[in-house]
């Protein structure tokens, strides 16, 4: 233990002040020799004693208060073992702070964030005269101070930063390096050498992510917040919830969801498993509870099945309960938005309309969707191809359409095809079904980029009904591993399908197309492909009865429902209703939207390109509610990246600097407890004084 | 020690009181039983002016005392009998404890009590009565002059004793107990004290003190308690907000600090309870309690005391200030 400002101890002489004040301030009573004293005595003996006792207590409190303040001002520190090599000549430096969530790990009663403040202060102390220093943290909302020769400013910013709790969505230290280099460049090209001091923990996202040099001639010096590079601090045990996600469990109930995830136990290996209690909260109400055993330094998975009583999306939270003191608090909760009932806007473009409903191209599809279990969340409307073109030409980018079905449409016009392509790239689902009117060349030319496979030509594979030689193409058993059909069982009621005409496709292994359904001949019947953020599915036969009796098969309804659900990337459940902290969230809208964040703030976003608003400030885990003018409200959940909870130590190679070095010892300040104690004494003193003055009155 | 009675008196009794004493007599309501002839009506028959009654003549009686007019009316020989005139045995018990030193100038309690005591002593001695006195001071009793005697030297001794400064404790129960065995028959015992704290060292001093006085009364002595109080003791008049430290002038009780306005209600309640108890105790035991406050003129106080002794009905002891009574 040493003192940074030992001269401040002279302030102890000031202890005489309250003593003097006490002696002078004490009221000197006038003396009266009084014979009838016995009539005063019974009550006043007590008063006299209390008066004296209280005064002494007050005096002791005030003296203690002053002594503590003086001691705190003399800044006692204990010099730690950790020593950081600092370049011995004047140089330009940037302190790059690791703001990742794992820096909240509590070591020796304080977080690594606080420890990194001490390490930063030690570097500031040891920097040779003439050095300039800047500050940057990997937290997007953290401090960013340009280089200056005033270390006091940096020290203050360090202290402010360390006092804040660690957030989510911080970059890795490596991702912060370009920012640090930018700070060094801003300072101008001088003759001075440049160094980046990266302060963080010994994790893969912290010091473990650092390269040896950030740029030519700029070494990056890893500075561990606790321990040393060669002797890392002991591994502390803590629990975190990882990769919690949900999916619809329609085999149980149309309203059922399956919520699954894993609990990771970080820390030393070995030892018995630990019993952990998990609680599922639906709309802030504890709905289910589970106990699992988590092995040391291992994972344990869990699964909740929940059937919502009421229709509509719900906020859900999974948390580890009854955890006690966790070394890294904050990652025991995961938020979900069970968006199973979000509405899907489906636009059916009818390429072959007919006044007879049974001959209408989209009659069977529309009827099937209306009969499906998800009919409540589907909003289906049909339009003619020229109506679609008119809408797109008028500047309407189909922002409110989640899935577009082109049913036997000749081909989109040349001028609107790029708009459609961009819309699919931005997340819209496109389902193309073929028919007599489809022009393969026009499709390939205009939408070839996004088709699962290019169209070749239609092929007659069967005879018309009523002919004596009845020949047709059947449907092979479905590919149940395809995401569209995942979770279904059996032959889906499609095996008896008879198809007379199909559209052949150009094989192209470079397109990552997946076949969900194929004909018995091996030709694909339903083929899909993701295209950027959107998805495209293609049915190689007609969706009405012209080419196939598929629409009459019992499996057609669930098939159509599944295809639409898969194509709807705007509400795909876990993948978009739940995003990682720091990821931007795209919000389809034509007008400004208001986002209500979990910490109670409101942000108004204008729509940007293509009828979408981009919300980037997703740094706080929790539920975000979006209100759209003229549109339905939207909610999504933000989860912390599980990698941020990982405190597993990785080896980090120390870097030797060229030239002279100065060793900066990390000094751990010990005056904070003194100040806290002084504040407590001050409170006591005030209470005592108030009480005494009230008694006097 | 001044042996000249006039000088001794002047040291204790102020001039206006001395003027008042001129030509006055000490008259008592009750008959006395002194050792020799004096000016007070005695309890027995004897040579005096006061007609007492007729008794039948017996051979050997002095024929000069036959009341011939009564013989003519009754047709038998009767003697005219008068009350004897005896000298009084006045015993003054003076509380010279530190508590009596309170007050300045004419309102000093000791000075007030001393003037009254000396004035009564002067009147008694001038009439040929016997005077004895005893004091309590500094925890001890001064009993040397207790046996009643006549003569001017007693007045000098009394004056000398009274001019000494009051201090310490006067154990009143002890004083009463010490006096009782040595008193001549039918003495007038006059105790001058503030009667606020008979003995601070004993918790039951009040009861013991009253018991002792009642015992004196039962032996035939006349007991008069002259309670000398200062107005401050009756009213605790300090109105300042500052702290006061009340100290015991006797040094027997622990000092008390506080603000007088806050202390006053409880103090007055206890004081009046004490004074009321004292009055009841005196009434029950046949003791005479005469209360005087030092802000009253001494002449008035003495006249009131003399009137009380002579049997004039006395208004109940008052606690009002002198000015308020006018």
**What is the CATH first-level class name of the largest domain in chain A?**
Alpha Beta
The structure class of chain B reads alpha/beta
Strand content of chain B: 15-25%
Overall shape of chain A: elongated
Q: Biggest interface in this structure? A: A-B, 22 and 36 residues
Q: In whole angstroms, how far apart are the ends of chain B?
A: 41 Å
Proportion of helical residues of chain A: 10-25%
Biggest beta sheet summary of chain A: 7 strands, mixed
Specify the number of helices of chain A.
12
Structural class of chain A: alpha+beta
Q: Mind telling me the CATH superfamily name of the largest domain in chain A?
A: Class I glutamine amidotransferase (GATase) domain
Order of helices and strands of chain B: HHEHEEHEEHHEHEHEEHEHH
Strand order of the largest sheet of chain A: 20-19-21-22-27-26-25
Question: pLDDT below 50 for ≥5 consecutive residues: which ranges of chain A?
Answer: 44-53
**The biggest beta sheet of chain B, please?**
6 strands, mixed
The total count of strands of chain B amounts to 10
Oligomer classification: heterodimer
Spatial strand sequence of the major β-sheet of chain B: 5-4-3-6-7-10
């Amino acid at each position: 233990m040493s003192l940074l400002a030992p001269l401040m101890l002279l302030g102890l002489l000031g202890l005489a002040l309250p003593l003097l004040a006490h002696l002078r301030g004490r009221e000197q009573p006038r003396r009266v020799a009084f014979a009838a004293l016995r009539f005063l005595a019974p009550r006043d003996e007590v008063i006299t004693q209390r008066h004296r006792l209280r005064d002494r207590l007050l005096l002791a409190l005030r003296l203690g208060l002053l002594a503590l303040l003086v001691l705190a001002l003399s800044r006692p520190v204990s010099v730690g073992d950790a020593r950081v090599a600092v370049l011995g000549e004047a140089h330009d430096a940037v302190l790059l702070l690791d703001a990742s969530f794992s820096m909240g790990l509590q070591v020796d009663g304080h977080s690594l964030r606080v420890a990194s403040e001490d390490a930063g202060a030690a570097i500031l102390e040891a920097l040779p005269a003439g050095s300039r220093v800047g500050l940057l943290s990997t937290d997007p909302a953290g401090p960013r101070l340009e280089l200056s020769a005033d270390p006091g400013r940096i020290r203050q910013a360090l202290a402010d930063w360390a006092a804040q709790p660690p957030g989510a969505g911080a970059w890795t230290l490596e991702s912060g390096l370009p920012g640090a280099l930018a700070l060094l460049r801003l300072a101008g090209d001088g003759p001075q050498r440049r160094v980046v001091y990266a302060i963080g923990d010994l994790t893969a996202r912290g010091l473990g992510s650092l390269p040896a040099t950030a740029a030519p001639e700029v070494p990056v010096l890893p500075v561990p917040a606790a321990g040393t590079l060669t002797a890392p601090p002991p591994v502390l045990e803590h629990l975190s919830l990882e990769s919690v996600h949900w999916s619809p469990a329609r085999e149980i109930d149309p309203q059922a969801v399956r919520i699954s995830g894993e609990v990771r136990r970080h820390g030393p290996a070995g030892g018995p498993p630990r019993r952990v209690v998990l609680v599922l909260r639906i709309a802030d109400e504890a709905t289910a509870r589970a106990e699992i055993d988590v092995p040391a330094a291992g994972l344990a998975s869990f699964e909740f099945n929940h059937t919502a009583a009421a229709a509509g999306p719900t906020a859900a939270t999974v948390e580890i309960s009854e955890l006690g003191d966790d070394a890294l608090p904050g990652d025991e909760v995961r938020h979900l938005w069970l968006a199973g009932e979000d509405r899907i806007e489906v636009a059916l473009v009818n390429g072959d309309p007919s006044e007879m409903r049974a001959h209408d191209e989209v009659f069977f599809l529309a009827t099937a969707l209306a009969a499906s279990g998800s009919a409540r969340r589907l909003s289906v409307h049909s339009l003619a191809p020229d109506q679609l073109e008119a809408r797109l030409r008028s500047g309407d980018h189909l922002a409110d359409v989640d899935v577009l079905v082109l049913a036997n449409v000749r081909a989109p016009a040349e001028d609107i095809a790029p708009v459609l392509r961009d819309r699919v790239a931005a997340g819209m689902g496109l389902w193309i079904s073929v028919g007599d009117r489809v022009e393969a060349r026009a499709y390939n030319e205009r939408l070839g980029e996004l088709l699962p496979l290019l169209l070749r030509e239609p092929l007659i594979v069967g005879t018309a009904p009523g002919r004596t030689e009845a020949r047709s193409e059947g449907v092979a058993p479905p590919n149940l591993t395809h995401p569209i059909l995942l979770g279904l069982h059996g032959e889906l009621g499609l095996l008896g399908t008879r198809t007379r005409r199909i559209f052949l496709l150009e094989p192209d292994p470079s397109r990552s197309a997946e076949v969900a359904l194929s004909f018995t001949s091996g030709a694909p019947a339903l083929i899909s492909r993701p295209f950027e953020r959107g998805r495209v599915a293609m049915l190689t036969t007609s969706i009405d009865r012209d080419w196939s009796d598929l629409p009459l098969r019992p499996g057609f309804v669930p098939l159509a429902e599944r295809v639409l659900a898969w194509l709807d990337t705007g509400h795909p459940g876990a993948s978009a209703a739940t995003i990682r902290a720091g990821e931007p969230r795209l919000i389809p809208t034509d007008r400004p939207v208001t986002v209500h964040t979990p910490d109670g703030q409101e942000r108004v976003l204008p729509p940007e390109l293509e009828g979408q608003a981009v919300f980037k400030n997703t740094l706080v885990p929790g539920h975000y509610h979006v209100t759209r003018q003229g549109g339905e409200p939207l909610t999504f959940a933000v989860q912390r990246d599980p990698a941020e909870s990982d405190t597993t130590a990785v080896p980090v190679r120390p870097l030797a600097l060229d030239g002279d070095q100065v060793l900066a010892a990390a000094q751990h300040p010990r005056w904070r407890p003194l100040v806290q104690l002084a504040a407590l004494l001050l409170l006591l003193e005030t209470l005592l004084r108030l009480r005494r003055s009230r008694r006097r009155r | 020690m001044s042996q000249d009675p006039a000088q001794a008196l002047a040291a204790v009794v102020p001039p206006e009181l001395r003027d008042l004493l001129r030509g006055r007599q000490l008259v008592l309501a009750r008959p006395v039983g002194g050792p020799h002839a004096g000016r007070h009506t005695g309890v027995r028959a004897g040579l005096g002016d006061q007609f007492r009654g007729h008794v039948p003549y017996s051979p050997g009686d002095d024929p000069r005392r036959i009341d011939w007019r009564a013989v003519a009316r009754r047709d038998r020989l009767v003697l005219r009998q008068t009350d004897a005139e005896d000298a009084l045995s006045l015993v003054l018990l003076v509380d010279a404890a530190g508590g009596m030193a309170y007050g300045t100038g004419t309102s000093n309690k000791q000075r007030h009590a001393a003037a009254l005591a000396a004035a009564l002593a002067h009147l008694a001695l001038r009439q040929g009565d016997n005077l004895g006195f005893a004091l309590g001071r500094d925890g001890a009793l001064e009993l040397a002059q207790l046996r009643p005697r006549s003569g001017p030297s007693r007045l000098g001794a009394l004056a000398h004793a009274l001019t000494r400064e009051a201090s310490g404790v006067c154990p009143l129960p002890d004083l009463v107990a010490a006096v009782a065995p040595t008193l001549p028959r039918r003495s007038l015992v006059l105790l001058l004290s503030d009667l606020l704290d008979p003995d601070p060292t004993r918790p039951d001093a009040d009861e013991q003190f009253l018991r002792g006085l009642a015992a004196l009364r039962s032996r035939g002595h006349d007991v008069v308690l002259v309670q000398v109080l200062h107005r401050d003791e009756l009213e605790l008049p300090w109105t300042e907000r500052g702290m006061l430290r009340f100290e015991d002038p006797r040094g027997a009780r622990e000092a008390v600090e506080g603000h007088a306005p806050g202390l006053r209600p409880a103090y007055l309640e206890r004081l009046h309870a004490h004074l009321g108890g004292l009055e009841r105790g005196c009434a029950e035991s046949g003791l005479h309690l005469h209360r005087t406050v030092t802000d009253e003129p001494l002449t008035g106080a003495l006249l009131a005391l003399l009137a009380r002794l002579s049997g004039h009905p006395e208004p109940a002891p008052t606690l009002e200030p002198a000015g308020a009574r006018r």
